[in-house]
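A protein record in our archive is deliberately plain, so that people and models can read it alike. The record that follows is passed on verbatim for readers who wish to inspect the format.
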Amino acid sequence: MGSKTPDQERQSNGNESSGSSKATSAGGEPLGAHLSRDGDGSLGDGGDGGDDEDGDATLSGPDGAVDPEATAQPASANASQKKKRKKSKKKKTSGPKQSSPPRIPLTKLFPTGEYPVGEIQSYAQVDNTARTTAEETRLKFRTQLEDPDFLGPYRKAAEIHRQVRRHTQESVRPGQTLTEIALGIEDGVRALLDNPGLEKGSCLISGMGFPTGLALNNCVAHYTPNTGQKEIVLKSSDVMKVDFGVHINGWIVDSAFTMSFDPTYDNLLTAVKESTNTGIKASGIDVRISDISAAIQEVMESYEVEINGKTFPVKPVRSISGHNIKRWEIHGGKSIPFVKNNDQTKMEEGEIFALETFGSTGRGRTVEGSGVYGYGKNPSAPSRISAPLTSARTLYKTINDNFNSIVFARRYLERLGVERYLAGMNYLVSQGVVESYPPLMDIEGSYSAQFEHTFLLRENGKEIISRGDDY
């Protein structure tokens, strides 16, 4: 609000303006000087020790005469004193801001329960296609994706992912161990969810969608630091894929990015990022999966990277797509291959997709590495088992109570206080009720990158729900 200006405020001595007390041009005494000479030192309602006396004292010289030099200033100064003070504008108070590292639950940052909407893209026109899904099935999907009870929590999970990965990109530096980085990400997700995941069944309500992936260089995917493995320190020459998911009520927002501290690998990262964006742009209702895959591959193979004076083409990693590890990444969702194929399946309204691309300077094919990334209960496994090992039966109950089909890392068990679980876990894996997942590797000396987003095919456009300012 602006300040109010009084209309023609009068001076307390009765003068209309400071100019009235100046000496005349003819050289006579200043107007009103006789009042001071005659001893009438109080003008107006009489001396009450207020502002008027202060004003007259300023106008009078030592001998009682008015000082012409002094009379030019009191009026304006007095007027400024009399004017009402400008009311300071109230600063607009913004809501609470996220801490660094992010630890404030998202419910406190968005008390209304309305979370940011992902990027909305219009569908490209698709010619000569026909929808094949039954109308009642379409209606079911469409209703789900437009339901606020579904969209609200899903967008909340996406905002948590954005805030945690932003802090990760800003704070992670060479010299940190992969354990430090993984714990920082996971602590941030749990804090923003306001769910530590330590109570029985709380991990099934919300939490990590799968173990945080921190794959370096020729390890293409599915590595996470665990107890018993050699500690790895991040180096300035490393290319690190960061892949984590946030789930609420079993619905996972899955997104991944790659970090590099050496500009040598910029083209590698750009190739994979642009491939992901191309695939998302090409996606839409009634679009064939094969067409999207071909578009992704074409963009990726148009890039090359020079390392130590040698030029390498960027190749799509063919053996990632379709790996059984994809089954948990999105509850009820699908993934998209990123190499040419003959899949004539068309995308449908109401579907959710995780589109991730991997590019490598190696062969573009992976083999299983040593170690264990994580474990997941076989979807067809029974709820109870009879096992000769007590530790196996107890461990299986813990898995059912806290993870069910959500894939988990060894350190997740340790957070719950589970000890000496390896013998029981090995038995469960040998019986096929629990599956174990190893890291996936390209040839030694190669480098790989990954970018991924989750998007929804809604009625009026696709919402890239995990999109952020970073990518």
Notes: Confidence is low (pLDDT under 50) at residues 1-77, 128-134, 321-332. The domain at 135-371+440-464 is CATH 3.90.230.10 (Creatine Amidinohydrolase). The first strand starts at residue 119 and ends at 121. DSSP finds 14 helices and 17 strands in the chain.
